[in-house]
Amino acid sequence: MSGDIPDMGMTTLGALAEPNRLNIVELLREGPLTVGEIAERLGLRQPQASKHLKVLSENGIVEVKAEANRRIYRLRPEPFQALDAWVKSFQRVMEERYDNLEDYLRELQGQNRPEQMHENKEE
Amino acid sequence: MSGDIPDMGMTTLGALAEPNRLNIVELLREGPLTVGEIAERLGLRQPQASKHLKVLSENGIVEVKAEANRRIYRLRPEPFQALDAWVKSFQRVMEERYDNLEDYLRELQGQNRPEQMHENKEE
DNA sequence: TTGAAACATTCTTTTGAAGGAATATTCCTT
DNA sequence: AAGGAATATTCCTTCAAAAGAATGTTTCAA
To answer: How far is A9 from chain B (nearest CA, A)?
Structure first.
């Protein structure tokens, strides 16, 4: 409910979060491969390989080229660029305000400040 | 079966793949927050917020500081550095061998090459 | 010491995603 | 035309993770 998909493709992370899928991606890093080879090298059954590749494809992580009987899959660079940008934007922000934890503690104190007022609870 | 978790923390991706968790991370980017505030700002119930924060904590994405009644959560930089390194290692490889798809096609051809042999099926 | 605020934890239920097995589709070879 | 190879798809089952609801724990205030 009220699911706010923020800025970056949640979908990319979701697709990569599955171990077999991550393995496929790592494998494809060495170059394009057919479904059969992917399945063989990773010890997957062909249908499962196809399914995972479908998910990766739907999320733009991978693209297919039909070559007669075979389907050759390879990585697409875009999602990785996006991921890179996302992570970088994090690191910048985190370096800046690393230890303003104390700032926040002071904030919290400020709210509680009973200073001079008796039983005035503002809810 | 035969699940080979490659190099990089699959666990980080898994933790970030959940929408609410990703929202929490995006929120914490602005600075440390208590459980209550996180729940409120994201429209979550307190228990669910706690649970998600637990997962994030277990995966090293977040760390807690107990301050009396409150628990203050904030991001940890390490997982993001790791992610960054991982993504970068990809981009390097992908730039290099982007279009050796054709190389691969030639490879495939080579295997099939019936050239001069008759019905010698090596299985 | 009683109560309330802030969080965590437990138990149950629900839902979706992954695996298994069989079958459909396309294309090549003979 | 027939058969086989490579891949996709469907249906069913299984399993784990997320939501819901209730309750436990700690800490502070009066």
So the answer is: 10
